[in-house]
Specification:
Layout lengths: L6 H11 L5 H14 L17 E2 L1 E2 L7 E7 L9 E9 L7 E8 L3 E3 L4 E3 L8 E10 L3 E12 L4 E12 L33
Helix pairs in contact: 1-2
Length: 200
């Protein structure tokens, strides 16, 4: 089950599409993602390994039993492996009977990691770090869908998240210049296509 696209995600992806390929553009992209995800996540502690991660875009409400953050370990490039770290954060005091995660790459992304992970019965408040390897097949604003199924004693809840990835087009090879038509010598007239010079 793929999480539906939300209006907040559309705004976020548009902002990323307009960003450039410089480091400042990447930082701006991350700020847009964080702004769209809201402030429902618990305040990170100083020793929290996910404190410097970016909030994924959630399709659920503010009462989600889990939260998702991510970090790009390598730069997104077409045809090259892209390493991500995904952090699944549980509600601090919630006792979970079963926790499962599914990864769903959208168009333009190839998944090299396991498509699903079963955490069994996790400890209360446990944080799960999930390494993910993707291979972008094209440039553009791509996305990885993450679906989380949480079973508790009284309820079964499914939450969908989206991890956006901005992949820039490959830069032209060094020394490659566009073809230039030969210049016409001074005083000469270029003949029209199909025309023949007059005989002397």
């Amino acid at each position: 089950m793929s999480p539906p696209t939300t209006g907040g995600l559309a705004v976020c992806l548009l902002a990323m599409a307009l960003a450039g390929c410089s480091r400042s553009s990447e930082e701006a992209r991350l700020r847009h993602v964080a702004a769209q995800s809201g402030s429902s996540n618990p305040t990170p502690l100083a020793d929290d390994p996910a404190a410097d991660m970016v909030n994924a875009v959630s399709s659920g409400d503010n009462k989600s039993p889990v939260f998702l953050k991510f970090r790009l370990v390598t730069a997104p490039q077409v045809g090259k492996p892209l390493e991500l770290q995904v952090a699944l954060i549980q509600e601090p005091k919630l006792e979970i009977d079963s926790l499962k995660v599914w990864l769903q790459p959208r168009d333009g992304l190839q998944l090299k990691s396991a498509p699903s992970t079963d955490f069994g019965k996790p400890a209360i408040g446990e944080l799960h770090m999930i390494p993910v390897t993707l291979v972008p097949q094209q440039a553009g604003v791509l996305s990885l869908g993450v679906t989380v199924l949480v079973d508790t004693e009284h309820d079964s809840i499914t939450r969908g998240f989206t991890v956006p990835v901005l992949v820039m087009a490959p830069a032209p090879a060094a020394g490659t210049a566009p073809a230039v038509a030969p210049a016409t010598p001074p005083g000469a007239t270029r003949a029209a296509p199909g025309a023949h010079p007059n005989p002397r």
